[in-house]
Amino acid sequence: MFKKEYLENGLPVVMESLKNMRSVVIGIWVKVGSRSEKAEKNGISHFLEHMFFKGTKKRSAKDICFEIDSLGGELNAFTSRENTTFYIKMLDEYLEQGLELLSDIFLNSTFPEEDIEKEKTVIKEEIKMVEDTPDDYIHDLSNQTIWGSTGLGQSVLGRRETIKSFTREDLLSHIRKYYGTKDTVISCAGNIEHDRIIPLLSKNLGNLRRGSEPELGDTPEFRSKVEVYHKELSEAHLCLGIRGLPQSFKERYVFFLLNTILGAGVSSRLFQEIREKRGLAYSIYSFVASYHDTGVWGVYAGVSRKKVKEVLELVLSELYDLKDTVTETELARAKNQLKGNIILGLESSNGRMNNIARQEIYYGKYYSPKEIINGIESITLDQVRNLAERLIQREYFSVTIHGPVKAEDIKGIL
């Protein structure tokens, strides 16, 4: 059962009670990420996420680690381009202790100077790790190609030179600006009781001050271009980006089905044509990245240097054919696949907590699993073909390649 309520300080709380579970997950979602950062402070949202675990007024970093393990739970956080999330998962019997621990970290962290300097080294190593993982790093490069060097084009981790410059005052300023009731959503899922959890939330988070809304700025312009980042790797990694749709767009179910048909599974067109039929890639898939006001529909592939142009031409051919060749059989299979993925993803308390938080942030309302399934079922073949025709326009394509490739190797591809 879903419920939404506001604490006395105006903090919105979304809750989903799942009586057949023993776990409880509580997430604190702050509506700020790398998109909202100034270029000279790129990476500060993620850096701050790390620093919240370095000790509070009454707990050391070691105390925090030992306490969460003694509860048999999980305490963690993650940062994206538009959100920073802190969450705790524990058995229902430890709800009160777990919520107090999460709230203490969120409200009372002290950010010691010596830990700030140590964490700069840790995050620089994290940046190196991503750069040494080309199938991951290509997505950062692709975002930069499409959106430029600010806003959505910025890396979540930041850059070495920005990380180096961060001060304790920078962290506190970021908190003062964004970590308030207007920027935050509390999401709870699992074996919870409304009449118990609301008083606990009020006790622990009721003093959170009001804050300002993160500035999203103008809708960024999708840049259609080809960018090659040459590096001597064993294979080339490529991303083809197409201008996509925002999170709350009314045709999102059509979009998800179109993506499923193109490249979101082993029965998809791209997997069958490029991997199974031709053996040109081990990993190839399509994906959707949607934001408040825009989005990207993308294709990733890791291929031999000599096969880059051939694979790109095949991907483009599959895209151009979609609007005329999608069949009822493909649509029915995609509906079953998408419904299965969604329902299986909601079988955990983590999945439910993430789902209701994102719905509140991006839609401002709750959609039950039944409503989502009905929405998917209602999509027609004409809707899928119409959206394919509107999205797949050459002037809204972008290509990024990372690996042993030169620009002349793919000349004329777009």
Describe this structure as you would to a colleague.
By secondary structure, the protein is of the alpha+beta class. It folds into two domains: 2-205, Metalloenzyme, LuxS/M16 peptidase-like (Cytochrome Bc1 Complex, Chain A, domain 1, 2-Layer Sandwich); 226-410, 2-Layer Sandwich (Cytochrome Bc1 Complex, Chain A, domain 1), CATH 3.30.830.10. It is 45% helix and 19% strand. It is built from 15 helices and eleven strands. The strands form two sheets. The protein has a six-stranded mixed β-sheet, sandwiched between helices. A five-stranded mixed β-sheet has the order 7-11-8-10-9, with helices on both faces. Helix 10 packs antiparallel against helix 11 (308-325).
